[in-house]
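Late entry, written up from scratch paper. The run itself happened at the end of the previous shift, but nothing got recorded in the book at the time, so transcribing now.
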Amino acid sequence: MPVLSDTEADSWRKGVGISSDSGGDEQGVNEEEAPAPVQANDRSGSWRRDETLESREEESSRHEKEDHYKSRKSSFATNLYIVSYLIFFSIWGTLARIGVQWLTFYPGAPVVISNLWANVAGTLLMGFLSEDQNLFRDAWGRAKKSRASDDKKELKDEEKAARKTAHGKVKKTIPLYIGLTVGFCGSFTSFSTFMRDAFFALANEVPTPNNHPGDDAAESATLPRNRAYSFTALLAIVFLTLGMSFSAFYLGAHVALAMQEPPLSLPFHFLRKVLDRLMVIMALGCWLGAIFMTIWPPDRLGGPLGLAGVLEHWRSEALFACCFAPVGCLIRYFASVKMNSLVPWFPIGTFAVNMFGTAILGTCYDLQHVNIGGTVGGSLLGCQALQGLEDGFCGSLTTVSTWLVELSSLKRRHAYLYGTTSVAIGFCLLVVIMGSVTWSIGFSAAICKVETS
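Output as recorded:
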């Protein structure tokens, strides 16, 4: 190896970032940054410096490309997991809502609002998940030592509030949390059904169970009453639903605070490596299973499991709803992601889907309860599909739980504006859509809900 002159040695040191007072040692330079051995035909230090800088820039560019590829791959996987959770939990949230409606509609029921208890249960769970800081405390693999040191610290109120806010922001990026809140709670509760119950109260059309032996009146049969009583019934539906839902939301939050000790968290690696990947298969399987069972219902007349006189209740009450529920839930999620941030004090995305879903539900109800081609609802299959759109698509597209979370997070003035506008416009939509039918030609019993012997 030729001996470098002092000028060439200084030039080489500057090229690789070593000061001249380091004595020529290579301390502080890692193996990847060490320059190639000096060749005998090297003619100038500047040429070698340029070559080293170019190689380092190429290597840096290669690492940036690799990191960008890994980031895109991780982002795609996360979005896939989120969509899978939303599909899976929207189906189960819809089934839970339908089941609660059936369980709470019985002779002598003190409250006959169809979706009240589903909204209460969904907002209760939403309040718990929103306030909880234990289940997802391992968010994105936070080190155990860091968690242990944080638990031993006695934090001030300001630090606790800041940490709670930071944890809430991180928690909202976890696929399982999004699936539980947006998917299950959002589909368990329904703003459009809440608005339909309010309209039924005004129009004196609230379905009630038969309360006395020998009462042969249909569930939809009601006695005439003064319009002032109808207005009072409307206020009762609105205030009872909102009051109980808000109470349930804060009760769930207090339950989460009471369960802070002992801490119980979900392991991050199990969620990311096992449950998230398994959910992709489970979501697709559940959705395809609902579609296949809708095409070939197990209670079809004359089928291997059919029962004479049963009008395929699985299709009417559950199967079509399970097929349409994921579509409504996904639209609501992406609308919120894209539009809610446009106006910080008015969540446009949630407002838009609540209004759109309410209008669709009113239209479907009209078509289901009017004479089309000599048959109410057009046909049995058409009536079942419309019922599925009401319970599945519109029920999952609109939400009360997320709406209440937004109301609780806004400033008081903005919360009153957002809440009042949502209820007023949603109710007015149904007055126009459903009122124009019921106050002109009237509603008839849907063919897919009539029992035959």
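The longest strand covers residues 371-372.
(Scratch paper discarded after transcription.)
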